[in-house]
Amino acid sequence: MIPTPYPQLLPMGILMGFKDYGKYDAVGLAGLVRSKDVSATELLDEAIARTEKIDPKINAVVVKHYDHARQQIARGLPAGPFTGVPFVLKDLELLQGTRTTFGASIYQNDVADHSGTLAQRFLDAGLTIFGKSSSPEFGLMPTTESRLFGPTRNPWNPNHSTGGSSGGAAAVVAARILPVAHASDGGGSIRIPASACGVFGMKPTRARNPLGPDRGQGWAGFSCAHVVSISVRDSAAMMDAICGPELSSPYVAPPPERPFAEEVRREPGRLRIAFTDRSPYGDAIDPEVAAAVRDTARLLEGLGHHVEERAPVLPADPALVMTAIVSANTAFAVKLAEMRFGRAMTDRDFEVLTLVSAMRASAIGAADYIAAEIDAFRISRALAEFMQGFDVFLAPTLCTPPLRIGELNTMGPDLSHVAPTLRRYIPGTGMFNMSGQPAMSVPLAWSKAELPLGMMFAARFGDEATLFRLAGQLEQACPWKDKVPPISA
Q1: Is 380 a catalytic residue?
Q2: Active site residue 189
Q3: Which of 115, 146, 161, 165 is an active site residue?
Q4: DSSP assignment of 62-112, as one string?
Q5: Active site includes 90?
Q6: What does the pLDDT look like over 359-416, one tens digit per residue?
Q7: In this structure, how many other beta carbons lie within 10 angstroms of the beta carbon of residue 403?
Q8: Which one is catalytic: 161, 189, 229, 231?
Q9: Which of 90, 132, 203, 481 is catalytic?
Q10: DSSP string spanning 102-118?
Q11: Of 46, 125, 419, 424, which shows the fewest CB atoms inside 10 Å?
Q12: Which domains does the chain possess?
C-alpha cells in the first residue's frame, strides 16, 4: 500500500488553527468536519478570506455568491464524502439561483433557473459552493483571458497565462485558496491549466461523469468534467462521489473494479510505458519541456517500470478535426443566443473568435462535420491499437512553458496567429478527447524560470485505475504539495 503524504485527523478536542488550513487536502478537511475539530462555517470563512486576499492578484473567482453558500450550511449539508469543504464551480456549469456567464458579455447577468446534474452531485457530496471560477468565452481557448472578466493570472508568474479553459480553477488550487475545484475538458481544458499552474488534473474516461440535463454529450463526445486538485486522492475520491450515468445518458463508461480512492493506495506494479518528447506532428518542442519528459522517463525506470520511446502514428490531423467539431458547436451556441434575444449577435455580445468560429461552421458544412467525426474515430482507433502494447503513454502536457498573457489574443481583427500558436502549444491533448481515454497532467517539473511543466499520462479506455495508481506512486516519489507559488494564501 502507498502511504498518503497528507496529514491525518487532529487529536480529538484540538481545534485546527486557520494557519493549518493549507496543510490539508479536501479529504483531510472533510475528516476534520466529521470529527468536529472544525465547522463547515469556519472552513467557508477561511476560503472566503483567502479569496478576498489573493484573488485581486490573480482574478480567478469571477462570480462570488458567499450568501448562497452560507444558506447551504444553514439549511444543513448532506452527509457526503466532502461535507463542509468549500468549493467553486467553473463558470460554465449551472447552479440554480446563481449567475453563470459562460465568460460571455451577453450572459453576464444570467441567473440559472436549475442546476446541472454534475453541480447537484457536488452538492450531494456535501461541498459548499461559494463561487464560480473563470473560463474563456464558452471554454474555447487554452488560456483564460475573457473580455468580460479580463485575464486570469498565473500564481507562479502573473505575466503568464494559467492555461484554459479551466484556468480559474487551476489558479485557485495552485494559490491554495482551495484544495480542489471543478474543471472540464473538451480538448485539454483540465490538463492544460493543471500543467500551467502546477496542480494535478485528471481527464476521466468519456461518460464517466455526467454532463446533463441540458447536454447528452459535449463537442461530439470530446467534452467531460471533473476537478483539478493538489492531491491525487482528492481527485480519486471526487470521482467516486460524482461518477456514474444519469437519466438519458447516451452511453456509459466501463464500471470500475473498486473505488478509485482505493486505487491511489495500491502499488501500480511494473507498467509498460511508452513516451515521446516530440509533438504528435513530429515537431521538436521546447528544449526544457523535452528534457523534463526524458527526466520523467528516467524516474519511471527508476521506479521499476519498463519504459520505451515510442509514439502513436495518427491517421488524421487532430487540429482539423477539433476545428470542425468546435466550430459547429459554437455556431449552435450563437444561434441559441440569437433565438433567445431575437437579433443577430455582434462583437458587443461575443468575442471576435467566437463569432469567427461560428461563421466557419457554415463553410464547413454537414458533410464535412461527418467527415471530422469519422477522422476522430480513426484517431481513436489508432490510439487504441497503439495502447495494446502499453499500459501508459507519457508525453508533455504542453509543448512550451505557459504562454504569456496576451500572447493568444482572441479579440483582435487578425486571428491568423491562433492556429500556429495552438499547434506549438497544445498539439497533444485533444486526441485523447477524441478517443475518450483517461489522461492526466502530473506536476513533476518546473522550468528554469520557475514555471510548472506538467507531464501527461494516458491509459486505455476506462482505465483510470492504472493512472491513479501510478499518480499515487509519483506523488510519493516526487512530491509537489509543498511547492507553493509566489502568489498564494
Answers
A1: no
A2: yes
A3: 165
A4: EEE-HHHHHHHHHH-----TTTT-EEEEETTS--TTSB--TT-GGGTT-B-
A5: yes
A6: 999 888 899 999 999 999 999 999 999 999 999 999 999 999 999 999 999 898 899 9
A7: 23
A8: 189
A9: 90
A10: TT-GGGTT-B-SS--HH
A11: 419
A12: 21-477 (3.90.1300.10)
